[in-house]
Design goal:
The structure is a single chain. By secondary structure, the protein is of the alpha+beta class. 26% of the residues lie in helices and 33% in strands. It is built from four helices and twelve strands. The chain is globular, with a radius of gyration of 26 Å.
Length: 279
C-alpha cells in the first residue's frame, strides 16, 4: 500500500503558518504585559511605603495641654507641618473644639514618639478661614519640624490616586498614624444635599450662596482625620486637606458605619491662607 502525502490546498499552509505565528506573538505580548504589571505593582507599593515613612514626622495631633488634667494632653484632630517647619495646617473646627474647651488649657500640637510616648509643643492660632474650614497655627520655639510640600491642586484630575494619613479616631486609638488610599472620584461643589431649614445656619447659608469646588474621595475618613493631608503616594506632595467624613447620623456613627465617601478642601485655599498670614 502506497503512502500518500496530505494534500494541502494552495495558499492554506501559508495561512496556517501565519495564524500560528500571530498566536505566538500575541502570547509573547501578553506575557510581556503581565510581567510589566507584576513588576509595577510591587514598585508602587514600595513607593507608598517609603512615602508614608517620610510624611509621618510631619503629621501631628492638634489639641491642648492642662497639667492638672488626666490625661494632661488631649487632641481633637490632625494637622500637618508645612513652610518653614513652624506652620501647621488643620481644620478650623478642630481648633474651635480645642480652644473652647477650657480657657486655662494651652493650645498646641502633639507629636508621636517611640512606643506610646508623646510630646506637646505650644502653638498660636494666627489665621482662620472659616469658609473653607482651615486654620493656620504657628509652633512656638524649638527646632523646626519636617515640612511637607504643598502642590498645585489645580493640576489634579478625576481618577488621580492619592493617600491620606492621620489619626482617624483621635483619642480612641491614640497618636498612631494611620494611612488610607483614596482616589479622586469627583470635583464637585460643596452643597449639602437635601438640606432642611433647621440646618440652615450662617455657615450653611454662606456655602449655598458662594459654593466652591471640593474634592470627593472614595477613601474613608473618620472624625479624627479632620485636617489630615491628602497627598501623592509617590512623593508626599500635599494637594488637599480632609474636611469631613460623609457619614450618616452623628459623628459617632462613623466608627461602625462609614459611608466610604470623604471630602477634602483643595490646597489652593491653604496657599491663600498662608499668603494672607505672611502679609
Amino acid at each position: 500500500m502506497c503512502g500518500h502525502s496530505p494534500v494541502v490546498e494552495p495558499g492554506k499552509s501559508d495561512i496556517v503558518a501565519t495564524l500560528q505565528l500571530t498566536g505566538f506573538a500575541m502570547l509573547r505580548l501578553f506575557s510581556l504585559i503581565l510581567s510589566l504589571l507584576l513588576a509595577v505593582l510591587p514598585a508602587r507599593a514600595a513607593d507608598l511605603a517609603a512615602t508614608i515613612a517620610a510624611v509621618k514626622p510631619s503629621i501631628v495631633g492638634v489639641g491642648t495641654s492642662l497639667p492638672t488634667r488626666s490625661p494632661a494632653v488631649i487632641f481633637f484632630g490632625t494637622g500637618w507641618v508645612t513652610g518653614d517647619g513652624y506652620s501647621v495646617i488643620t481644620n478650623a473646627h478642630v481648633v474651635s473644639n480645642a480652644i473652647k474647651a477650657d480657657q486655662k488649657e494651652s493650645l498646641g500640637i502633639v507629636l508621636a514618639g517611640d512606643g506610646n510616648t508623646i510630646a506637646f509643643r505650644s502653638a498660636t492660632l494666627v489665621a482662620v478661614d472659616a469658609e473653607h474650614d482651615l486654620a493656620h497655627l504657628r509652633v512656638s520655639g524649638g527646632a523646626p519640624l519636617p515640612a511637607l510640600k504643598l502642590g498645585d491642586s489645580g493640576t489634579l484630575r478625576e481618577g488621580r490616586e492619592l493617600a491620606l494619613t492621620g489619626f482617624p479616631l483621635g483619642m480612641v486609638l491614640g497618636l498612631h498614624h494611620v494611612t488610607h488610599r483614596a482616589m479622586l472620584s469627583a470635583i464637585t461643589p460643596i452643597i449639602i444635599p437635601s438640606i432642611g431649614a433647621r440646618q440652615l445656619d450662617a455657615r450653611a447659608i454662606t456655602q449655598l450662596a458662594r459654593p466652591f469646588d471640593i474634592f470627593q474621595l472614595d477613601g474613608t475618613a473618620y472624625p479624627g482625620n479632620s485636617g489630615s493631608p491628602v497627598y501623592d503616594p509617590a512623593d508626599g506632595v500635599v494637594y488637599a486637606v480632609i474636611n469631613m467624613g460623609f457619614v450618616k447620623g452623628f459623628k459617632e456613627s462613623a466608627i461602625t458605619s462609614p459611608s466610604g465617601i470623604s471630602y477634602a478642601i483643595p490646597g489652593r485655599y491653604v496657599q491663600a491662607l498662608l499668603q494672607r498670614t505672611a502679609q
